[in-house]
């Protein structure tokens, strides 16, 4: 890199040439670059700073020196990325470990052909091609078989396109499909589908082992069977028992081989692949040979029924030898003796024995006979359609006769489930992504080319089998009509043994590879830590070999072996593979539709419609194969998903489901009206204001307990708090506070969001939260806070001024306010109230929130057994009995169960209470006025309308004020002193007098004589306090309010002192800010003596309705 130099040949200091500074010429000599003189360290410059400067010297990066620790230079970053290597699936490093030679891992050099194409080819072509494809063609016919194969191949091709897009969107480490799905759809989907893919791979190993045993015992060495059929009809059960015994032995042997060394399995992989390719070449060579020289495989038919040639050798009823007619072995199988006059089976007597060629050749025209399906019931005889036949007696027993029987009932959907495993294995390339020279180029090319090749092989084989082989041979699953030969082997050239030996080693190798790959997939899932109980399977030998995972895989594989039927195991693994492929398509579709900035695949030939089509096809094939297996597989995946969601580790992989959730949330927020919801949809959306201590811990955890009891996880909950200071200084503390609050929310099971605000002033931070918390239509409508117990301490940051201002701001924002007093006495989520009451004191109607809150609380198990009681007050001229009936009717229409009690008070006291609440509230309705409106509704429904005229709230307030002005003008000074002394609690005598004033005997009328006596009585102890009081001007409003608070408190104590919770209308603060401290005193007196109090101040709009 060329060093930037000044335009002038002389160097300069701050733009001025050095020659103008002769006294600093030494500086220029020693420190400015380009002079060719070695630099010297200065004693005045810190050596560390010199070293740091030398580090960036000549790199023109002095401007970014302070950021180099966290942000590296681009050159070093590119150097690291260029040298990035990814470890392999687990073969190369394990071999190096076993050989105790920890050499440097070489850069992968495998190309598309060796690394992707051939492994996919080997995994796709397998046991179903050799053992079941001919039987599928004979049973379903060429046309329906073509449809089956085309559907399955189309499914894998669409999945390969989606997989190619995902695999080329960044580096795919070991883990293959599990890694792709989990990083695209999140840990829940990734874990669920990864385990399904693991189970599919494990059951595939069981299927390959069963195929190996079937080839061994049926076609290579039938005499090796341990269990033999002693009676007719026990052949199938004996074969299944042989499968179980041999399968268990082979699993143990294969597990030992895999445990001893994976390198041996991988070295044999090329041999197994060669067997597959040679077998397929032999099939095509045999097809070509049939055109001019068909092989001789005669089939013996009795009428139109196919006979099994395992029991006889001559296809005739009798033979002529030396002019003597002799019966054959076939005669003796159908007749009771070898004599010509013996009694024989009716069908045998009525029909002739004929012999036809099993493989007439490609030019024979047999394709027309094999076009259509020939499904049959279990135990039916394989028959040739166009062969003449005479029906015998229906009472004839078929058991013991040498017919070829079908072993299972056949139908289209069952054949799909059996065939689909033959197209699996498309993930082999992506699983080897670490071994590839250029994975993003090789995986799409090799996988799609391998699927195209195998699809061509399968589709061409269907047509060729149907054109070359007789239908009864195709439907003969185990080749009994051709002397127990493998049916596809009869077509092969030069010998059937080429196919038999090739398929044997092919299935054996596929089983070994399944037992090698499945444990590593389980180990990758376990090491991710998303499924806690699987973490033990992440451990293994010292070199990382998954020993425990191998044992579990062998155990699950043994379950498939115990099933023992290849046709029963195949649909099981079809379900798991189809589910895996479905989610690969879903991952690609989601990422494409979301258009996330990180979605930039190098493979461009994809579209979300193709992914969606592939996903739909996978889902359809699942239910086509077996609807009950599909439901079971989906249930297993769903249980794993919910388990990971509930107990799994928190992983943030930038997955598409999170992006989908964000898009859905954005869409929903845009749809939600930015305004108040309808009354029927209203529920308290809480902003919970917490107070933190110096350690950033929550002071009142019970407030979150009460929140979870009130919300029960429904609606919006925002938990907020304020730190006082500057954000740049407090950002670390804010993060710590947020972590603490979130941890407590988890403990208290409070579902919601946390928001910590740093503000220079505590009050401003609260204001910011009230104004800005929430987003769009998802904003809070209710503020929940704790009563400031230490509000009299001026040094406390949550002083009474902050509290009163918060009350005013919630009113201005048209939000409801809930204030929990004595919050530390509220129950935790673990407590249960077995009895008690929730008492509601309904003084003014502010939207019905007082009614709604007890109903919501009683939904929680803490408050479920508490009864709801509603108290209201009546004037002397009110009909309290009718008022109670109206209120009961109103609660009936609200569908609320509650006891109702009307407390009668004198009109004088009631007017004081109404005045007390109305003067502070401003917008509230009188309860009497509100009940008159409700009464009109209920009366109208009963057919009788009662109308009463009431004075307006303003007139009531004015009357009360006038009355109080006339009666209390003389006592107001004495009362004010009483107020102030009660508030400060500084005079013990005054305390005693207030405490002695029981609710029923409170005497609030003070005379001047009492005032003078009280003054002299406490003169010595309260000199400073009384000096302030004497200097104050009496306030008539404060006298009335304190009077009201004391009287109302007495009434509440009388009725609700032992209630579990008391809900009260909360009066608003005075409009004149000078009375804020008195307002706090009023609230203290109002709630005195109550254990748990919830002061409720509604927003003034209806929140509960009688309508549906």
UniProtKB/TrEMBL annotation:
UniProt keyword Transport present: yes
Origin superkingdom: Eukaryota
Topology class, membrane: Multi-pass membrane protein
Membrane spanning residue stretches: 12-32, 110-133, 145-168, 189-210, 245-262, 269-288, 408-428, 448-474, 548-566, 572-594, 606-630, 905-931
Compartment(s) of residence: Cell membrane
One GO CC term on file: plasma membrane
Domain Amino acid permease/ SLC12A: 116-290, 409-687
Classification via InterPro entries: AA-permease/SLC12A_dom, KCL_cotranspt, SLC12_C, SLC12A_fam
Annotated catalysed reactions: K(+)(in) + chloride(in) = K(+)(out) + chloride(out)
Entries under Pfam families matching the protein: AA_permease (PF00324), SLC12 (PF03522)
Boundaries of every SLC12A transporter C-terminal domain copy: 701-818, 819-898, 1009-1108
GO MF entry, a single one: potassium:chloride symporter activity
Family: Belongs to the SLC12A transporter family. K/Cl co-transporter subfamily.
This protein's name: Solute carrier family 12 member 7
Organism: Buteo japonicus
């Amino acid at each position: 890199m060329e060093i930037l130099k000044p335009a002038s040949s002389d160097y300069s200091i701050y733009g001025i040439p050095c020659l103008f500074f002769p006294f600093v010429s030494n500086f220029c000599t020693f420190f400015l670059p380009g002079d060719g003189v070695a630099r010297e360290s200065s004693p005045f410059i810190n050596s560390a700073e010199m070293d740091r400067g030398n580090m960036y010297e000549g790199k023109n990066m002095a401007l970014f020196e302070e950021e180099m620790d966290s942000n590296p230079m681009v050159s070093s970053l590119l150097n690291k990325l260029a040298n990035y290597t990814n470890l392999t699936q687990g073969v190369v490093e394990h071999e190096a470990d076993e050989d105790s030679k920890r050499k440097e891992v070489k850069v992968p050099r495998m190309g598309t052909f060796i690394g992707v194409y051939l492994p996919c080819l080997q995994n796709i072509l397998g046991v179903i091609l050799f053992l079941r494809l001919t039987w599928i063609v004979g049973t379903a016919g060429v046309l329906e078989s073509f449809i089956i194969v085309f559907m399955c191949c189309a499914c894998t091709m669409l999945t390969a396109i989606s997989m190619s897009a995902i695999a080329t969107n960044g580096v795919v480490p070991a883990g293959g499909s599990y890694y792709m799905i989990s990083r695209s759809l999140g840990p829940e989907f990734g874990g669920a589908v990864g385990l399904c893919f693991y189970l599919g791979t494990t059951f595939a190993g069981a299927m390959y082992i069963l195929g190996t045993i079937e080839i061994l015992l049926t076609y290579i060495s039938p005499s090796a069977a341990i269990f033999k059929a002693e009676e007719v009809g026990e052949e199938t059960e004996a074969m299944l028992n042989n499968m179980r015994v041999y399968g268990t032995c082979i699993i143990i042997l294969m597990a030992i081989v895999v445990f001893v060394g994976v390198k041996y399995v991988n070295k044999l992989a090329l041999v197994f692949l060669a067997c597959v390719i040679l077998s397929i070449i032999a099939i095509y060579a045999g097809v070509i040979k049939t055109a001019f020289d068909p092989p001789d495989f005669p089939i013996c038919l009795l009428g139109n029924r196919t006979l099994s040639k395992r029991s006889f050798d001559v296809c005739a009823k009798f033979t002529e030898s030396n002019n003597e007619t002799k019966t054959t072995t076939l005669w003796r199988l159908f007749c009771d003796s070898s004599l010509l006059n013996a009694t024989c089976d009716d069908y045998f007597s009525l029909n002739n024995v004929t012999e036809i060629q099993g493989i007439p050749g490609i030019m024979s025209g047999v394709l027309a006979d094999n076009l259509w399906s020939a499904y049959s019931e279990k135990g039916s005889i394989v028959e040739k359609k166009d062969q003449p036949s005479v029906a015998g007696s229906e009472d004839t027993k078929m058991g013991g006769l040498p017919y070829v029987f079908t072993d299972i009932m056949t139908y289209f959907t069952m054949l799909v489930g059996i065939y689909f495993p033959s197209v699996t294995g498309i993930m082999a390339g992506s699983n080897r992504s670490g071994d590839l020279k250029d994975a993003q180029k090789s995986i799409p090319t090799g996988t799609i080319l391998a699927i195209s090749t195998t699809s061509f092989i399968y589709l061409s084989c269907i047509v060729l089998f149907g054109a070359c082989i007789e239908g009864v041979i195709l439907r003969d699953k185990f080749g009994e009509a051709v002397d127990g030969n493998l049916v596809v082997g009869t077509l092969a050239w030069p010998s059937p043994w080429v196919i038999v030996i090739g398929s044997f080693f092919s299935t054996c190798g596929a089983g070994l590879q399944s037992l090698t790959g499945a444990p590593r997939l389980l180990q990758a899932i376990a090491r991710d830590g998303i499924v806690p109980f699987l973490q033990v399977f992440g451990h293994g030998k010292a070199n990382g070999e998954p020993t425990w995972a191998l044992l579990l895989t062998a155990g699950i594989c043994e379950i498939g072996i115990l099933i023992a039927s290849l046709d029963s195991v195949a649909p099981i693994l079809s379900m798991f593979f189809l589910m895996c492929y479905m989610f690969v398509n879903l991952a690609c579709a989601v990422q494409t539709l979301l258009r996330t900035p990180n979605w930039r695949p190098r493979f461009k030939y994809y579209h979300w419609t193709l992914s969606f089509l592939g996903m739909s096809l996978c889902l359809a094939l699942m239910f086509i194969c077996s609807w009950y297996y599909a439901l079971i597989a989906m249930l297993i995946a769903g249980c794993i998903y919910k388990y990971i969601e509930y107990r799994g580790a928190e992983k943030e992989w930038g997955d598409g489901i999170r992006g989908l959730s964000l898009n859905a949330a954005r869409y929903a927020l845009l749809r939600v009206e930015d305004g108040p919801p309808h009354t029927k949809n209203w529920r308290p959306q809480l902003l919970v204001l917490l107070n933190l201590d110096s350690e950033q811990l929550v002071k009142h955890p019970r407030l979150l307990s009460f929140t979870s009891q009130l919300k029960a996880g429904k609606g919006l909950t925002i938990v907020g708090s304020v730190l006082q200071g500057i954000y740049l200084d407090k950002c670390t503390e804010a993060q710590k506070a947020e972590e603490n609050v979130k941890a407590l929310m988890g403990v208290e099971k409070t579902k919601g969001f946390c928001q910590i605000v740093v503000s220079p002033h505590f009050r401003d931070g609260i204001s910011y939260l009230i104004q800005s918390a929430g987003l769009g239509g998802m904003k809070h409508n209710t503020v929940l806070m704790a009563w400031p117990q230490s509000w009299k301490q001026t040094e406390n940051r949550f002083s009474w001024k902050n509290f009163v201002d918060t009350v005013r701001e919630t009113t201005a924002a048209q939000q409801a306010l809930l204030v929990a007093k004595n919050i530390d006495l509220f129950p935790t989520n673990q407590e249960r109230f077995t009895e008690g009451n929730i008492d509601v004191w309904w003084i003014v109607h502010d939207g019905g929130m007082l009614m709604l809150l007890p109903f919501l609380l009683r939904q929680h198990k803490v408050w479920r057994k508490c009864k709801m009681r509603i108290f209201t007050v009546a004037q002397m001229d009110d009909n309290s009995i009718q008022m109670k009936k109206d209120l009961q009717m109103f609660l009936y229409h609200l569908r609320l169960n509650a006891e109702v009690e009307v407390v009668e008070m004198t009109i004088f006291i009631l007017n004081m209470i109404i005045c007390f609440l109305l003067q502070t509230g401003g917008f509230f309705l009188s309860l009497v006025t509100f009940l008159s409106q409700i009464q009109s509704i209920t009366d109208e429904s009963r057919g009788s309308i009662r109308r009463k005229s009431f004075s307006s709230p303003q007139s009531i307030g004015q009357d009360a004020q006038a009355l109080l002005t006339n009666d209390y003008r003389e006592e107001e000074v004495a009362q004010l002193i009483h107020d102030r002394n009660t508030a400060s609690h500084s005079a013990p005598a005054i305390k005693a007098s207030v405490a002695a004033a029981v609710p029923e005997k409170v005497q609030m009328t003070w005379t001047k004589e009492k005032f003078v006596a009280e003054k002299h009585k406490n003169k010595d102890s309260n000199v400073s306090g009384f000096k302030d009081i004497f200097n104050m001007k009496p306030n008539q409003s404060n006298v009335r309010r304190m009077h009201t608070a004391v009287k109302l408190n007495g009434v509440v104590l009388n009725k609700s002192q032992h209630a579990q919770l008391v809900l009260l209308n909360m009066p608003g603060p005075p409009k004149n800010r000078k009375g804020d401290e008195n307002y706090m005193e009023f609230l203290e007196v109002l709630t005195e003596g109550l254990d748990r109090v919830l002061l409720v101040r509604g927003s003034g709009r209806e929140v509960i309705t009688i309508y549906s």
